[in-house]
Amino acid sequence: MRHFEHLPPSVRNGLFHKQPAAFDAGSPPATLATALGATLYSPATRPALAEDVVKQAARGVVSMVLCLEDSIDDADVADAEENLVRQFAALDALAVAGRTLPLLFVRVREPGQIGDLVRRLGPAGRLLSGFVLPKFTEDRGLPFLEALTEAEAGHGQRLYAMPVLESPELLHLETRGETLSGIARTVGKYRDRVLALRLGVTDFCSAYGLRRAPDMTAYDVRLVASVIGDVVNVLGRADGSGFTVTGPVWEYFRPHERMFKPQLRRTPFAGPAEELRTALIEHDIDGLLREIQLDRANGLQGKTCIHPSHVAPVHALSVVSHEEFGDAQDILRPEREGGGVMRSAYTNKMNEVKPHRAWAERIMLRAEVFGVAREDVGFVELLGASLGAAA
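^ thats the sequence. predicted structure below, dont judge the formating
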């Protein structure tokens, strides 16, 4: 699969200086973790789940989570498992026929579901990339990872884990440090199986009876922002010990009454794109765009999504700009391994080789899977093209 493959070649050629590279479930973990992009969640109870997966893949989705946990009623778990097995069989037939499918993960409730589902999926289990592990702490997480390791041994192919960090112990100040240390020990022990760590901000807010409004980001809620900062501090380091940490879910997708001004300036949308700006504001996507930028600034990659309309903004803002790519190339030139400082090619900033090296390496990895925009192409053009193709 390939990001932006749903766009016609002529459109892609006009947008990209460097095209996104192809990847699949067998690609290196660092590539896959970056390529996850907007991971779309769907309840496993949906009767047309296989059709939904195929439809979303055709619109640019490359990773999906089929949920057996909080998105469905407790009484529906058994029916949801049966439906999941049926839908995987239908997807397997489509894959055999040549249809491209996204990376598929299942969010379970209990460790015992992992081995049971792998057995029940049978040959169709080859489409399964792994499991999402809820409310992850050291005590609760170990049984999940042990079950995944056992299931993988019998399954014959790699199964990744994506723990969700959402427990009250992580939120509460008096237990946060110990909880983070325990999580770090656990995921460190199973490093080769942990693809990414996901943040459950809705559960964080729930612990205090909070819910952020559509004109506020997760970073405007100080309780939540402090947890994100501490998670990245301990688990998202760029020294080789860290993991990919993904951005929190954006809950809104329909118009709401506004109290504050829109968060999108008019200038980038001048001319024909003014209608796009209006549509984004009407559907609260301006708040999502701001949160994506803040995710990146705070060390997060990709995002959990609960609505298809959120996918295009996440992917458009994941494309590396021509300026970022040029800076990263300059910093990583072999002749500059000894360090030093230079003015950027755009003559608007300082590039310092040693302090900016880890940033540049991340930029190059993102450039590999999301591509590099042409010099005159910004997120407005990328987003407009993606939304037009998905319409």
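Residues 40 and 64 are 5 Å apart (CA to CA).
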